[in-house]
Predict the 3D structure of the following.
Amino acid sequence: MKKMIAVAFALLGIFAAGCARTGDMESSAFAPGEDRRLVIYTSHKQEVYQPLIREFEQRTGIWVELKTGGSTELLEIIAQGDTDCDLMLGGGADSLSAYSFCFSPYHSIYEEDIAPEYRSSDGSYSPFSALPVVLIYNTKLVRMNPPTGFASLLDPAWRGKIAFADPAVSGSSYTGLCTLLQAMPGDRNENLRCFAANLGGRILPSSGDVVGAVAEGSCYIGLTLEETALKGMDAGYDIAIVYPEEGTSALADGAAVVAGCAHEGNARLFIDFMLSPEVQQLLPEEFYRHSVYGGDDGLKNIELIDYELDWASSQQSTLLETWGELFEGAQG
């Protein structure tokens, strides 16, 4: 994988002119000046952010400082205002939109290449990749009647056997929850209550824990992103993917420039870098993700709902508050 990434990134000459990097900044005792710095908060896993950031540093000579965590958790830190963050990297479009007041609008030089369904109307965030929400199940423990869709998450037969991450911490988990509520017929509040009760008082601290919980058998089924599930399958875990029969979402995650940040120009450079054709081409080839350029054959065979982004972003605080009360009540 690293060799393929190196070959692909070798094509990226657009950022190289006048940006030669002297020595290894990661090990250098001499940090660059303020004009060559960038502070990124990211909810991505290391295997995603590390090759991208390293290549960006080498191409531009910009020193990147990093803070990692759950997307909702990091967005709350940014919203409090006392932060050195320049760029939020990660989080679904719904979560980023909910915190749009924290960001400085920016339209990338590659804006016209982005498929219309992924663009931010106000430029408060820039999309990075499209990520379908899926179900997974343990193929050794579930040999008959596997889950077929979101209705399975409300079925009492699976009570206490569902792997789901805390949506108050994980943006992808929040997107999964909103996708369930939008895809399922009936009253959304009632479906929310049923799902919270069906977890049986169990919730995982991170979205990255879902695949492991299902693979090891402590849970039988789980709600996660296609990317995470595919990585687990390629790693040899005994799991299978289910694309919900009700339809699912393929929401974009993205990046956003923090308003009033110290290194706004460098943050914008990073957004242009991640939206460049070469990086977008790598997404399905190396990162189990779909490009936001559109025309992805991998999405054509998936039944997709018309995800209500405005509802998901405007209702986030209310929905999470209600969720917390319901889940706490289900534990009692």
Summary: The first helix runs from residue 2 to 9.
